[in-house]
Amino acid sequence: MGSVHHANAKTTARIRKEIQDSQESIAVLAKRLSLNPKTVLKWKHAGRVEDAKSGPTNPKSTVLSEQEEQVICEFRRITKFSLDDVLISLRDLIPALTRSNLHRCLKRHGLSRLPKEELKKPKKKFKDYDIGDVHIDITTLHIGKKK
Q1: Residue 146 lies in a domain
Q2: 20: domain range?
Q3: pLDDT 10s digits, 70-126
């Protein structure tokens, strides 16, 4: 599979390798390849031909706190709700929660897609209750560092 370069990329992996292997001067290489001498100099000393990873090394939310992200992730693990159901359920608890930052949070923690085997499991039907009865399930969410 070929590598994908950004729209303004002037060099490919082949050209970068050629720059690194060449004995010609920076100015000669730049003129021959129609590149800026700074670009040639960069790739001459790069030690690699692939683009560096763009984006943050440790991605984190600028909107949600770590505790809020823990609540979201634990809620998703326990309930296995869809994205929209998680959003509706947690919107009152976390006012800054939007569909997009919820999706980014789940993606960051590997929870954006439920495993297929869990999706295939038939859901148990709730016990039938008389009209007026209420069934409540309770769970505990621990927020904080584990010992």
Answers
A1: no
A2: 13-44
A3: 999 999 998 888 899 999 999 999 999 999 999 999 999 999 887 776 556 666 777
Q: Please, is 134 exposed, middle or buried when counting C-beta atoms within 10 Å of its C-beta (0-12, 13-18, 19+)? A: exposed
What are the C-alpha distances in Å from 48 to residues 19, 23, 41?
A: 11, 17, 13
- What is the number of structural domains in the chain? 2
Residue 33 tokens, joined: 């390849």
Is 126 among the domain residues? no
> pTM for the whole thing?
0.52
Whether residue 17 is contained in a domain is answered as yes
Using an 8 Å Cβ cutoff, are 17 and 3 in contact?
no
Query: H or E stretch including 118?
Result: helix 116-120
